[in-house]
């Protein structure tokens, strides 16, 4: 759905040049929810604004639904933008218009006949759960309701792609969850591709299929959300993942391994469980097969989008020759194993 190749953006201000995007390449597939996460100033807004040409790239190419958009003329660009919806952190509603007329606005611009447009607005307000607020003005709505209007407006022209620029950053956690659920629902119902930018790993965890991590204007990691959560490859990804799933084991636990004699050895390991493996009794089966003892040091289980995901820190005690086999067994069952200490 989106194919970005070698995209760079330099802002030239008086006497200064800022490299906001540095050779960014990215593919977003049709029908997926793709997240871009990065710290403030990393280049997220610049990237999303380049995708609908609110910013003109300095170098590189961007194809949306098979069409290169960096070289379109104004007329063609206007038509292309009608198929790209966008929602914003500050909602960007027209305060003097009612909810109904805000959603109507893009249909007026696209010159959709009034009767057809009215029907469409009614359907959209129903989709976002605001039918009873049609006659109100944005100033009379909560933040979550305003964002629902923003979503209905973004969907008015039947876009194939929805861009979300920190759409939940101004909302409380509960409202954030309800807006993210709405995005998930419309992604499924309408098979709409969604690209969102955020600085909040919880947003990635709740709704995204894949994620790209952006740091200092460059993409440093891209992958399935489950893979990035279970095994982040870069320090930036590590710190985002740790912000929502604690992987840190307290130092005193790392050093307090069980008393042992020459016959036994211990390994402190972290086991990540994903999807179906989270439901299997793999640890007890390892204990029986390899005659090892297991101490649970720390554990939690969570959900990433709709998949169970957990991690356990375990101390495994057993015959030195069998410990490695025991770990290989767990790996063979599809678990991600990280050895924290050997003793
Ligand atoms: N119009 C502009 N003119 C000059 N520099 C800009 C402009 N817009 C952004 N920048 C610079 O480009 C870099 C990337 O900014 P960008 O807004 O894309 O980051 P961001 O990741 O979206 O940050 P935030 O989460 O704070 O919005 C920053 O150094 C910023 O100062």
TrEMBL record:
Top EC class of this enzyme: hydrolase
GO biological process: amino acid transport
Signal peptide positions on this chain: none
Cited InterPro entries: AAA+_ATPase, ABC_transporter-like_ATP-bd, ABC_transporter-like_CS, ACT-like_dom_sf, MetN_ABC, MetN_ABC_transporter-like, NIL_domain, P-loop_NTPase
A molecular function (GO) term: ATP hydrolysis activity
SUPFAM superfamilies from the UniProt entry: ACT-like, P-loop containing nucleoside triphosphate hydrolases
Gene Ontology cellular-component annotations: plasma membrane
Domain ABC transporter as annotated: residue spans: 2-241
Pfam families linked: ABC_tran, NIL
Enzyme Commission number(s) from the entry: 3.6.3.-
Coiled coil: none
UniProt name for this protein: Methionine import ATP-binding protein MetN
Native source organism of the sequence: Pelotomaculum schinkii
Lineage summary: Bacteria, Bacillati, Bacillota, Clostridia, Eubacteriales
């Amino acid at each position: 759905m989106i194919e970005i190749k070698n995209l760079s953006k330099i802002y030239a201000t008086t006497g200064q040049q800022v490299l906001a995007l540095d050779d960014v390449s990215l593919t977003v597939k049709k029908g997926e929810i793709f997240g871009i996460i990065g710290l403030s100033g990393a280049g997220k807004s610049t990237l999303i604004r380049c995708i609908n040409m609110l910013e003109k790239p300095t170098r590189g190419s961007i194809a949306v639904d098979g069409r290169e958009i960096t070289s379109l003329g104004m007329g063609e660009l206007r038509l292309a933008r009608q198929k790209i919806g966008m929602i914003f952190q500050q909602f960007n509603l027209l305060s003097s218009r009612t909810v109904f007329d805000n959603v109507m606005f893009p249909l007026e611009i696209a010159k959709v006949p009034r009767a057809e447009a009215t029907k469409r607005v009614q359907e959209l307000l129903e989709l976002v759960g605001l039918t009873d607020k049609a006659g109100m003005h944005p100033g009379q709505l909560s933040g979550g309701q305003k964002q629902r209007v923003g979503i209905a407006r973004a969907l008015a022209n039947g876009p194939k792609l929805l861009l979300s620029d920190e759409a939940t950053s101004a909302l409380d956690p509960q409202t954030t969850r309800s807006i993210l659920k709405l995005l998930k629902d419309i992604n499924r119902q309408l098979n709409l591709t969604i690209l969102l930018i955020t600085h909040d790993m919880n947003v990635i965890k709740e709704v995204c299929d894949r994620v790209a991590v952006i740091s200092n204007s460059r993409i440093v990691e891209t992958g399935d959300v489950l893979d990035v959560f279970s095994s982040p490859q870069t320090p930036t990804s590590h710190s985002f993942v740790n912000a929502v799933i604690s992987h840190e084991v307290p130092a005193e636990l790392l050093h307090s391994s069980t008393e042992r004699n020459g016959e036994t050895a211990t390994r402190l390991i972290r086991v990540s469980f994903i999807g179906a493996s989270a439901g299997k009794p793999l640890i007890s089966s390892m204990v029986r097969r390899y005659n090892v003892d297991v101490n649970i040091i720390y554990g939690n289980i969570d959900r990433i989008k709709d998949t169970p995901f957990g991690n356990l820190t375990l101390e495994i005690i057993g015959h030195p020759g069998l410990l490695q086999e025991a770990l290989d067994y767990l790996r063979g069952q599809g678990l991600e194993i990280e050895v924290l200490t050997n003793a």
